[in-house]
Amino acid sequence: MAHRFQSFDDRSDRTATPSRLTALRAELARCGLDGFIITRTDRHQSEYVPASEERLAWLTAFTGSAGAAIVLAGRAVVFVDGRYTLQVAEQVDGSLFEFAHLVELPPDKWIEANVAAGTRLGYDPWLATVDSAERLAKACANVGATLVGVETNPLDTVWNDRPAEPLAPVVLHDEKYAGESASAKLARLQAEIGKLKVDGLVVSDPHGLCWLFNIRGSDVAHTPIALGFALVPKDGRPLLHMDSRKLGNSVRAALSEVAELREPRDFAADLAALAAGHTLRLDQATGADALARLISGAGGKVARGSDPITAMKAAKNAAEIAGTRTAHRRDGAALTRFLAWFDRAAPGGTLTEISATEALEDFRAATGVLKDVSFPSISGAGPNGAIVHYRVNRQTNRAIRPGELFLIDSGAQYEDGTTDVTRTIAVGTPTEEMRERFTRVLKGHIAIARAVFPAGTTGAQLDSFARAPLWQAGLDFDHGTGHGVGSYLSVHEGPARISKLGHAPLAAGMILSNEPGYYKAGAYGIRIENLVLVVEAAPVEGGEKPLHSFETLTLAPFDRRLVVPAMLTKEERDWVDAYHARVRDTLAPMLARDDADWLVQATAPLPRT
To answer: In Å, how far are 17, 56, 76, 320, 541 from 95, measured between CA atoms?
Structure first.
């Protein structure tokens, strides 16, 4: 069997939860704590973490990519956002944990409503940002409790079979893909540090670290990063702290030209030395509270704010943009081969969520340049499609049956670009409700794709464009409309996003997803996702502001069987037909005859009556 980048084993184990919870409570009592906060993160506050950092999953059996828990002596609660409200109820033992909405009732608000005076509530300063630690401390103070930072995480003490920290080899990211040398990036960064009027920057985000030094790794599944820290003074050579066992001779030689290589064990002392009498910028999104404590303890000052690398990385250069266009053509051809295969195979009733996922990965692998999937595919048939971040395993694997919808959200990692695409497919004949709601989601997708907006517009200002057609029917979806995407880095990248919380301006060169959806619990899910590139738009005659718009990067047909043409305006129908014509003209020459013929039919113009 060919190598698979994703596994379908059930990583959750709720049968072990009672004993693990008991062990943790005993350890808390031994440490003089009445409770503890468990976050779903690592020292870099990453969304995707190595197995050695999966503390929330180990304790609760919840395997989603965002969440937290609070364990007290007599009760415990798990917090998840709207993507995981169905998943958490399936994975976590509701007799042991209560469930709370991470956005509507975050941990600090829960503490104010549920924690008694005199409680000593522990947290790990390495696993919380400065901002979040302050919110938690304030919440505790408001009820007469105390937030206690621990030196040793009590959960790690009782996690007897904790996996080792990853030591995957670091590789150089070729400048033909990066578009800029590491030395040039460092020069730009140090100029930005000077503008901030600080003495240096703590680089705590591994994505920024890898972008800055033009390296990649595989310390984290599906995200090609190498874990480490860097200290960048406003003048002089930076210090790169990374386990030397990850560095081969050629990588070591290249990095030594632009930085002083240091071991992780040297980091605290090096940070203290740089901080003494100086002001250091600490990224408020990824900088751990422990870092702020180290800086302050050494007599330095912490300047909180965004890491300037984040904005630099998000605005892709010409080489990265050319690479992502190439990657999306390649990926679009692979996805179209899959869609044609699926259309032929699905009516037979033999496909399952896993077999479809494996087939799509095989089509991508056939390109010969696939490095990894960009995340575990979300492959949901029927009611499983309504679980926004559903991850199929061998226990939940469902047959794909006629009369249902199949939702496949997937992506790939290529050296020249990262992809992420969702298509919702009718198996057999869809109901009129399915078609009507799909078309509302499509209308919202088109509204984003066609948007023209003044430079400086934020994602929050555009988010309602995608929701308006659903709102008109009293419907909505409980996730953001779009997230930023990296260049052979994380499929989820800041600072920009299209959501109610997306307050970063959208700048030319940024890549984001456009993915409105609708989910009917117990029945079906609908999501339509393309990646888009922010580009400068043609000026409007008489206009007073420079404008931006989106170029759609993803190339794959929508399921025309789910579209109700009469619900679309002429402009919307024209957009769909033009998009499909572009998909057909671009991809057909890359396909075998049978698949090209299928694509011609799949991209035919929509009926006009």
So the answer is: 11, 17, 10, 49, 64
Residue 235 has φ and ψ, to the nearest 5°, of -135, 150
Residue 1, pLDDT score:
45
Query: What are the residues whose beta carbons fall under 8 Å from the beta carbon of 475, sequence distance 6 or more?
Result: 437, 440, 518
pLDDT band at 86 (very low <50, low <70, confident <90, very high): confident
Domains of the chain plus CATH, in order, are 14-158 (3.40.350.10), 171-307 (3.40.350.10), 318-602 (3.90.230.10)
Report the interhelical angle of 570-587 vs 318-345 (nearest 10°): 90
Task: Write out the two tokens for 486.
Answer: 């990296």
d(CA 488, CA 222): 10
Q: In this predicted model, what pLDDT tens digit does every residue of 537-565 receive, in sequence order? A: 999 999 999 999 999 999 999 999 999 99
Cβ contacts of 5 within 8 Å, gap of 6 or more: 222, 361, 370, 372, 373
Alpha-helical regions (H) of 218-307: 249-256, 267-275, 289-297
CB 62 within 8 A of CB 307: no
Helices 206-213, 182-195: axis angle to 10 degrees equals 120
- pTM for this prediction: 0.95
* Residue in the block written with tokens 């009507």: 436
Residues 550 and 449: beta-carbon distance below 8 Å: yes
Query: Is residue 377 a contact partner of residue 357, using CB atoms and an 8 Å limit?
Result: yes
Q: Are 427 and 346 in contact (CB under 8 A)?
A: yes
